[in-house]
């Protein structure tokens, strides 16, 4: 898959040079009724199942390789370049950068190939995949995975440097969020081995993945925190870049229209644009509003039961809560299915949502049993009361998703859960041993009255240091073996386990704090990627999503795709009319305010003398003329400075361009283009 450049559409009066680096200002007129701009880049694909003879060999200048061939080419190059274990810092060292990284970047970079970053991240995922037969080479594979991430970061940065402005933003968005088929032009023997699960029809976009999704799965935090990737993430988060996302399974699929990666112009969009409901920034606000409603209904149900104990009042609040909560649970389950649990688990509050769903399921089961046999709520509502810590904590996580403390808690919770499960599994042996001792050699009534629950309680009290009854009664199990088991458990639980737990959690917390900026940007990318939804079920707020599943899903099999799309869009706009109206008016006002602010800023540029640093700004406002640049190059040759900085190195192969000379040429090209933009 490649990119063919063509002249962008004329700039409107809204756009100016100062907005080139602002994703919100990367708008141009034209597009469809949704306000999306006609793509400036045409994405070219090789036909499925056909081999290109030139793509299988070393590509000529400007040619494009298929995704399948490029993935294998990258794997061969990376495996040949790295045959020993290296850390990421060692790969970024000057000698490794000059001998390995730069030649590979120059060899792989193709300004017409938008799939190169995807292929690099796909190879990183494959290198990181644990394989028992390659356990001895796991460290080497991790080094190769780190090299793939470093190459992807450098190549994405080069795309960003070579394609500035609006067109560059659109190209970067196509690189990161466009879907690619890994089996593109693969042989039939390879395509036949693909998993044969039921795939929903998406008009030729089935089985495709994005580079951003693979970066999240492989935790490529260096790639995600790069300025180019953050530019795209911020544009997608604010709705400047819009597209139809790829998903695994949709509960309510409506893929009659496929929207490619494009720029959004709110002034040309419909006032009730239902596609703005999947903009991550707006989607997060809508989901927060839904959760606040859920919390208020929960508080009314539990508080009314606790204070008034009026079963009629409880049933009113409880009925409303159950209907809304069922729709909210359906929305969360659809979010897990949308991109898979592996991506959803990267969300900060995913474990809290799962905990509440488990509590709500237990409450619903007990409540259903009570309604069948009795008319009371003595057991179900107390179970529901245990969800209060989860719901209130979830509010804090939602309001502060960029807080490093919550990010650390999310990572530490995974380690804590894993280690606690291992400890409980191992300590269960002590319960069984003491229970068998009590029944075989217990003194007095111990072999009759003691149960596994009593023994577990005594061991837990010892574990937390609350009570010593278990130690006092140890000799009742067995004169010698009872105290030995109890003392061994006390040492292992209070000394070894707690020491290991504190060490692991401290190490996890220190790693996150040391890389705070990357962690925050990674979580923001996860939140952005999960916010773009393709399933139509997310356009229906709870509990309307349940009605949509019960009515529209059967209707889909009775009418054609066009009729179903029209009915679905009409219902969505009617249900969400107030929200869509507010979104449309707010976005248009924001554009008008930015135009006014931009006009005021332009007027100040005519008076640089008003600023005490105006002369300095004038000097650096434009690049020097070509004759000055040639004179500077004669005085200080940049490629010689770069070589001296890296010391003596092995010259690159003859078929590769000099890294320093290529960077100088790219810098000169960028300078000349900047001069042309300034003169224009």
Topology summary:
Layout: E1 2-5, E2 41-44, H1 53-56, H2 67-81, H3 88-91, H4 94-108, H5 116-128, H6 138-162, H7 165-177, H8 188-191, H9 211-217, H10 221-224, H11 227-238, E3 241-242, E4 262-263, H12 280-307, H13 311-339, H14 341-344, H15 350-373, H16 380-385, H17 388-399, H18 404-441, H19 446-449, H20 452-464, H21 469-472, H22 474-477, H23 481-514, H24 516-531, H25 544-556, H26 561-575, H27 577-604, H28 614-619, H29 626-635, H30 638-646, H31 659-679
Antiparallel strand pairs: 1-2, 3-4
Helix pairs in contact: 2-5, 4-6, 5-6, 5-9, 6-7, 7-11, 11-24, 12-13, 12-17, 12-24, 15-17, 18-20, 18-23, 20-23
Features:
single chain; mainly alpha; two-stranded antiparallel sheet; 31 helices; globular; disordered N terminus; disordered C terminus
Structure description:
With 680 residues, the protein is mainly alpha-helical. The strands form 2 sheets. Strands 1-2 form a two-stranded antiparallel sheet. Strands 3-4 form a two-stranded antiparallel sheet. α18 packs across α20. The chain starts with a strand and ends with a helix. It is built from 31 helices and 4 strands. Residues 1-32, 38-61 and 642-680 have low confidence and may be disordered.
